[in-house]
Design goal:
Helix content is 51%, strand content 3%. It has 206 residues and is mainly α. Helix 1 (21-43) crosses helix 7 (163-179), helix 2 (66-77) packs parallel to helix 4 and helix 4 crosses helix 6.
Length: 206
């Protein structure tokens, strides 16, 4: 896997019209999880956020939605759609390994950009470096470096995803699509993309 510095000046003008279905489904599943956990934290005094995900917490929830944030990562980082499935696997593993720590609106964005970045390093022949992902994700490079390491320790460095596990998560996501009246299959192929200029953004202070 080769890291590139993000100085490319290509763009993907068709990006908005051809957002892979898998991005929408991952966003839908995560939005439901976050909404449920936010309600739990708000209504149950005994429901804490857990210490293990504290490094991913922001002071407040970012204004950008989960869906738009995922689209932004896809549009500018050139990662393959499969990275979002594997990133979702990582978040799910974290949830199961550390059930006392809830994925909520305060931490989902940082979890997402960290997970997709690590997934891209595992899957894509070429991937952009941490500094570039930080710029896309709206965090500082130093913070993203720390978040990447935190994520790896939360996963006990278990970042390998077998083809069987990958397929099982694709099937799970397809079932979620069917529940919402959409009976399509999601993209499984790893593809190469190009990028354009990146509008600046921030998801707030940690």
């Amino acid at each position: 896997m080769t890291a590139v510095d993000g100085d490319e000046n290509h763009h993907r003008p068709e990006a908005e019209a051809t957002i892979p279905r898998v991005l929408s489904v991952v966003a839908l599943v995560l939005e439901r999880l976050v909404a449920r956990n936010d309600r739990l934290v708000a209504t149950c005094s005994s429901a804490g956020l857990g210490e293990r995900l504290k490094p991913f917490h922001g002071v407040r929830a970012p204004s950008i939605s989960i869906g738009k944030y995922i689209e932004r990562i896809y549009k500018y980082t050139s990662c393959s759609p499969a990275c979002f499935v594997v990133g979702f696997v990582y978040i799910d593993r974290v949830v199961h390994r550390h059930p006392d720590s809830l994925v909520v609106s305060l931490n989902i964005h940082r979890l997402l950009v960290s997970s997709v970045m690590v997934a891209s390093k595992m899957l894509d022949d070429e991937h952009y470096n941490n500094e570039f992902y930080a710029r896309v994700g709206g965090v500082s490079n130093s913070e993203l470096n720390k978040l990447e390491l935190e994520l790896l320790f939360l996963l006990d460095f278990g970042v390998a995803v077998s083809s069987q596990v990958f397929e099982s998560y694709c099937l799970h996501l397809e079932k979620e699509m069917a529940r919402n009246g959409v009976g399509h299959t999601i993209e499984r192929a790893v593809v190469s993309n190009t990028i354009g200029d990146i509008p600046e953004m921030t998801i707030g202070d940690p």
